[in-house]
Write a structure and sequence with these properties.
five-stranded mixed β-sheet, two-stranded antiparallel sheet, about 80 residues, about 30% strand
């Protein structure tokens, strides 16, 4: 599964995508756990998960066909 990342997450991992092998489907909560194990530099990072351009909760199921993105909080003025 290819996961798009932005801002501070992109800076910390040095890439604009994360590639994870998660099988056919996974919950968002399980996805987060995989990310924190595979990318320990993201420990403590706060972000929301978007599935097909809509924010989703941890019990939502995502598949490799979905567009998934990690969106950190943004500030503006």
């Amino acid at each position: 599964m290819e996961i798009k990342v932005f801002a501070s997450i992109k800076e910390k991992i040095g890439s604009d995508t994360i590639d994870l092998f998660v099988g056919d489907s996974i919950t968002v909560g399980e996805l987060k756990n995989h990310i924190f194990v595979d990318y320990p530099e993201l420990d403590g990072e706060v972000f929301q998960v978007a599935k097909n351009e809509s924010f989703v909760k941890d019990d939502e199921v995502v598949t490799s066909d979905d567009t998934v993105a990690l969106i950190p909080p943004v500030s503006g003025g």
